[in-house]
Amino acid sequence: MVSKLLGLPRLIKKIILSSADFVMAVLCLFFALSLRFGYMDAHISFIALCMYAVIPVVGLHIIGFYKGVARGFFDALMGKVLQLFFVLILLYEAILYFDVFPIMPRSVPILFLFLFFIWLWNSRLTIKELLTRWQNNGIEHQQDATEIDNVVIYGAGHAGQKLLDGLKNSHKYNVVAFVDDDPQLTGAYILGKRIYAAQDLIEVVDELHVAQVFLAVPSISRARKRQIINKLADISIKIKELPSLQEIADEKVTVSHMRKIDILDVLDRQTVEPDECLLARNITKKNVLVTGAGGSIGSELCRQIIKNKPQCLVLYELSEFALYSIHQELLAKQKRNPDYQETQIIALIGNVTNEDKLYRVCQEYSIQTVYHAAAYKHVPIVEFNPFEGLINNTKGTYHCARAAIRAEVDTFVLISTDKAVRPTNVMGATKRLAELTCQGLSKVSTRTCISMVRFGNVLGSSGSVVPVFTKQIEQGLPITVTHPDVTRYFMTIPEAANLVIQAGAMAKGGEVFVLDMGNPVKIVDLARRMIHLSGCEVKDERHPNGDIEIVFTGLRPGEKLYEELIIGDDNIEATEHPLIMQAMEHSFPLQDIEAVLTHTPDRAKENDVVWLKSQLTTFVVGYRQDDAQTI
After folding, report:
1. In the structure, what pLDDT confidence band is assigned to residue 486 with cuts at 50, 70 and 90?
2. Has residue 466 been placed in a domain?
3. Against a cut of 0.90, is the pTM above it?
4. Which chain regions cross the lipid bilayer (predicted)?
5. Tally of domains in the chain
6. Is the domain of 16 the same as that of 67?
7. CA 140 → CA 146, 173, 208, 361, distances in Å?
8. Burial class, 137, CB count within 10 angstroms (exposed 0-12 / middle 13-18 / buried 19+)
9. Contact status, residue 534 vs residue 212, Cβ threshold 8 Å
10. Which of 419, 431, 560, 613 is catalytic?
């Protein structure tokens, strides 16, 4: 029967609802008169009763009350009804004053409209609730009950209540309780959902068979969030969160805003607010060039740079697709934000080994700051293609920096890596040789300030394990880790780019800046945390029926168990920024490195890998050759 009613034409449904409202209006007016006189008698004719009762129904048609869908009823609509009834009270008083209709006591219209408002509110809420239950029952018959997750909302404040409201019509989530840090709320109820104490979270999850926890505390600190996550670390449960207060400003909080926990929240790492003066020093109202602009770091540098309003931003990239992607993204940002519209954005295809082209670009666009992010960074790939790594990473850096010096660019910043420290792979060795090249060029440059910024893994980059693990978990595949003891440093791409800009602004020339990466993280521990956060259980000897297995594949060619950020133990100094340090490291005369780079093309034609590795051994402290196959 419900299906038949819902299938009726809208005009028929409007007639049914308005007719029901008219009947109730007559009854409400009759009861209002009876209450006024103290006994069941209207004191006016039935025709007069209907004439008075039809007025509010006509008014509801005029304000579009019957155009709304009953199942989508909401409070704002009743606000319009209140305004209408206020006008109707004045109209009734005027009718009674001028004796247009049969006389009745002047207090009756107020009482009548009050009763009729209660009817309208409750009838629409009842219809909405009945339709919702009918729809949910239909879905439950079609779906397995196991597909509906029990959810606990952490945070009983405004955001949590809005989230509960947004989840009411969800067919995937069933909110069973709230959890909150405020002890005064413990034991209270919100729309029938009990609020539990934060310390009882584990018991609540266990007793109520909770599958997911939604963090609805936008103002929560990262440290407090980590405490909550750590409390749930041994339970296979999904954790999602609302965005920060700034991100959800002026938006209605709904389940669509929920997102997965930032992986940084499970790492023991604190961030520091950036120094706006350092961010603006080499960028604001200046012409900036980014090489490798389509890569993970390069593209994030571009996003951070445009926020600081340069006069011109030149994107230099070899991959056409990567260049197109970041160029379109920045143009879209520029269109949405009027603050960015004065910046000229130029997209150029080019190779960093083409010094003449780079020189022309710097001259044509009067470049003042260069961020050199172009590099081959995948360890196994470069290990099997060593000459390509040397030509792109070292020789490319040499030509890029020389072009900047020739064009009298003010600042040149090389993006380096922790793999350059005592490397066991060609990629790291070529990046250290690139640092040495910049150190050598810095000594002969009188105008261009050249510096290097060295840091570890960035979460979410094309070379990071996080997207690989995420994909394996989503597909239900085993997570592949090279070794049980392998550890890495981590930070987010935005933070790394942010610190690179600030470090470059502090340079005087020749410095190797090292970013504070926090504490190293065991990759296997990171894998376990990601499995738990996805709501799965690690499959191992203790849990043979688990969901995701961790498989150790062995170290890849050139891979180290532990990464380092500085070459020596005592050659590190603090800077004005708490997360940026300066390494004091040995360098070589520029002509010695230039001799290697000069012979590189000829040796590459012969694929003389023995010569290449001998040169890396000579210049790069700690580099150890291996027996990796090369092509």
Report:
1. confident
2. no
3. no
4. 20-38, 44-65, 77-97, 103-121
5. 3
6. yes
7. 10, 12, 19, 63
8. exposed
9. no
10. 419
